[in-house]
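#dry-run=false #mode=assembly
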Amino acid sequence: MNPVFLRLLIVGGLTLFAVAGVLLFEVILTPITILSFGRTPQGQVTGWIGLAVILLVFGYPIRKRTQQNRRWPHRWLQIHMVAGVVGPLIIILHAGVLHMHAVVPILAMVAMGIVALSGLIGQHVHYLAFRTLYTKRHELVGQGVIPEEVETRLLDTAAREKMFRVWQMIHAPMTLLFIALVALHVIGALYFGGLYSP
Amino acid sequence: MNYVPLPRAVVPIVTVATLVLLGWVGWESILFPEAFWAPGDLSQYHSSVARCVHCHEPFQGPSTVRCQACHYKEDFAARSEPTVRDHHLRVIDQQKTCVACHTEHRGMLAEITTGVLPVSKTPSEVDE
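#status=ok
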């Protein structure tokens, strides 16, 4: 099997497995708590934890924009990717997607799903691009092409990668909508339920 | 390292879309507050409640004071069966919170009591 396709299959499968697991866990918790898990004090704390983890993802774009001429913030990208998957999973547990009712949190959940999914797609696109560049470089060097010529030829391949940047047009703008909807949800929850209500 | 920036048009488009979304949510919240904010439908017992703040104290949650605006002592004394009446008169005197035993927004047909009282008897059972 093509290793790129295999990787896509593994990441997609693990994501689906994790989401299904979290949903099942929430369904198991709900009968114990009478109320859906998200409405219990523990569920509310889970929501705050999920929000805190999600906020970690903003470290990467902030570092990227404030340190443009320095090194690529590789560590922050790793934190971005891990928090971008773990945070939404915690929020799915908090929300109990199967028990959702109000429009505002549903919209926030949809926005979060689009942002997370476009991020996963983007990560795969980048992986694909770097892998292609790496393979091509080795091929050209193997053929005895001089280093300057290798770089010139690779520029074409790198330029083609820009075509795949459509995911970024969704990922970044949807984040703003997501922030707005999360802010509405948090303010609404505090307004109607207080900071800590049963 | 330079990064490929997003097209300039993206920022104003997203800002306008966000403002439109916030305006829409604000407008619809006035018309359909329960659909936009409540974690579930109100039960049949409270389906006539028109506004969220009839039961919710802003930034404090469901308020015992607001519950007792409708479910006051005299009402329990006049309309409830003895078990329910005595229990609630005692709870009101002791200034306990209603949400310790009652909940809401679990659906039209859901029960709102979380199992502290014996199951209510029907009028025929009371006569027996």
